[in-house]
Request: fold
Amino acid sequence: VIASKTPFDLSGLVPETTVRARPAVTWRELDGEAVLLDLEHGRYFTLNRAGSRLWRTLGKRRTLSSLQQDLVENFDVDAETAWNDLVELVRDLDHHALVVLDRA
Amino acid sequence: LFEGVNMTIVRRDTTRDSRDAEKHQYRVVGLELVTGLKARDWSAFSRPTSEEAWKAAPFGTVEIVESGPRAGARARPDVRSGVLLYRGPGELAGDRFSIECVRLTDGHLCLDIAGAGSFEISPSGERIVFRSYFDSTAIDLAKLAAIAFGAPLLLALARRGRFVVHASAVLTDHGAVLFVGASGSGKSTLAAILDGLRWSRLADDLAALDARAPALGPRLLTRLPQPRLSFAQQPTWAPESVPVAALFALVPRSDRVALQPMTKSEATLEIVRHTAAARLFDRPLLEHQLDFAAALAETIPIARLCVPWRTGVGPELIAAVSRALAGLAPKGSPCP
Reply:
């Protein structure tokens, strides 16, 4: 019971961690950039092209490892850079309650 | 395009039925407004004498009805019967009230004004019902009319696909040019300056926009009373619908006139930020607002306009905006 009340440990993001967009978040894409709208709180966010490309795929649950692979294949970055950028973005998305994280 | 609105305010309580006999008709935002109350300062928008002109645009119906007090000493809606969207201070018709907006389970939006009563806006935006409190003493009839044509009407119009943006606007050779900005950024001043030079003012603070017809592009609906303009300054001379040529977000306190491009996502957020009554929107309205803002950002040029407020800046601003409209604006430089 105590463990279930503990906030998700973001520093524990691992390749098997899964992430998906919260259903209460709608979005539109304009010129490759995404505008996110959190319908629950009426808050807006924008994502650049790389973030938007990742966000497009989050309608379904994705593992971080598969997202990392997408970044490596589509942007000219090595695996380590892709992982660090991915973790930073996912932390931001989670901080603003735009995604649901879950351990595998 | 002009799926207008026919609004009627009719008092239904037992003491004021005689007021039903007196009706005032107005032409507002491509709609027919019929009210049992006389809206102060709206006479510039009276129904035109020409029946041909009056019948030129088809219109739908929105009815505003005052139903009289509910049973019980208080008429405040029960938040438990819906979703609370906003609770806090609000300025209505120039006065500050404690307001609350709830989306009721039947889809109505209920805008409650402490000490007075509540407006219920139907899901389709076709009907607004005002219910006063039994102990209401806060609002007289003139104030009630002024309030009804404010936030409740904006909510109904939004539910009908027309959003009102806090913006000034001028009519140019290319169409309407809009200026948005925070309170005090100078959008009214800018429109006044340009109005005295080459262009004509279409809006001072409230711009009603319709972006539902992609083939036509976004349109500015000019028949919306501008609260801070005098009777003579109201834009009743203008066509009822004007294509929107561009929108500029004002950046005050700059050293010189300059234009700064915006991405479409930035432009979308700029429009969202300045949409009137948006804090009262429920989820469907928020989604429609996002579609509306994105449609504008997709179809018209939107940029930041750096404005130094000094004497004689008008011609420079006209030149800069004209260059932008002609697609000749230099890109990339930040506002000085």
Notes: Chain B touches chain A through 18 residues (CB under 8 Å).
